[in-house]
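Could you help me review a protein record that somebody else here produced? My question to you is simply how this chain folds and whether the tokens agree. Thanks in advance; the entry in question is below:
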Amino acid sequence: MKKYFFAVLSFFTPCIAFAQGEGRWRTLFDNFFELIGRLTILLVGLALALFFFGIVRYFFSPSTLVKEEARKYMFWGVVALFVMTSIWGLTGVLTNFFGFGSVVPQLPTGN
């Protein structure tokens, strides 16, 4: 654990000592928010895959026990999609209301 702590500390030490200039923090935060945006897209994709996995299992299984389990997958997939998109939309409404701009993650363009 100490090894990871010192690795992270050595990453932030130039920023704390102001050896990298002011742009270092902005770059760090920009990279962090880009990572959050990509993770959001990944999580929505995983929830959608979970939902479709439940649909496939439901229609192609002869057993009622497997169908009941597939219903649970579909239910939790829909719940996860609903919660994520609701928070995503609410965050967008609040940031636009307070004038912070849009926080809707965009797909990378490859530039």
Remarks:
- The chain has a mean pLDDT of 78.
- Helices lie at 2-16, 23-60, 64-98.
- Residues 2-98 form one domain.
